[in-house]
Amino acid sequence: MESNDLADFLRRRRALLQPGDVGLPPGGRRRTPGLRRFEVSCLAGMSPDYYARLEQGRGPQPSIALLTALARALRLTPDERDHLFRLAGHHAPPCLGGDEHVSRGLLRLLDGVRGLPALIATDLNVVLVQNAVADALLGEQTRFRGLARSCTYRWFTDPAMRARHPAEDHEHESRAQVDDLRATLALRPADPMAKRLVRALHAESAEFAGLWERHDVAVRRSDRKRVLHPAVGVVELDFDVLATARRDQRLIVFSPVPGSAAVSQLELLAVLGQESFSSFPHV
Prior knowledge:
Elements: H1 3-15, H2 37-44, H3 48-55, H4 64-73, H5 78-87, H6 104-112, E1 118-122, E2 127-130, H7 132-138, H8 151-157, H9 159-162, H10 170-187, H11 192-204, H12 206-213, E3 222-229, E4 233-242, E5 249-255, H13 261-272
Antiparallel strand pairs: 1-2, 1-5, 3-4, 4-5
């Protein structure tokens, strides 16, 4: 780990960003250019003290998960992200199932979605980053590891995942998940992550195996979803998958029907924040 070089790189990348680049209000006058340290730490989901020690060259070696979060918070390019990993004493992560680096432009689009739950996910249903309203509605979806990173995998293997949706919606959701996964595998038949996911689901879920045998296929571009939330009840939303420059990443935005109860429910969730999800089963 090159502590001094890592510290210098972090400071210089931070100095290049303005609040508007990451969806933050401009705030008052700044004595130095760029974001403040605490703003970067909040964007990366780490403590301000830990991030400050990294910039001072005296912090412990950051984990791969923390480096990934920092790369997104600082809007690094793929080359800059790989450099960050090497400075921290790690190999850059291999690109299995598509490169999971999110571009600056796509992150700016996510930052521009205000008041609505929105997230960026891969075509294997791995959530890469989500906004604060999505945190409050769905809970933190980026903390999982291994195959469990895929929401599709958890849908068929983790009862807590299904507990977030009314029972009468389960059959439709299962079919939509399988049809979309088959469409992804057809686009990338040699992808090791996609193949591993399908094999594991065949072995662990009879429901999945039965639906897979139907050989139905459909890219999920829009749908309606009902979410059971512990603080505000059943939230009914439409969601749309917005076109991006990359076919293996999706910007997904949830929106309420105008005049529906979901409008006020989202407003309340925006105020309550992620604390409103603390009593919900772990998913």
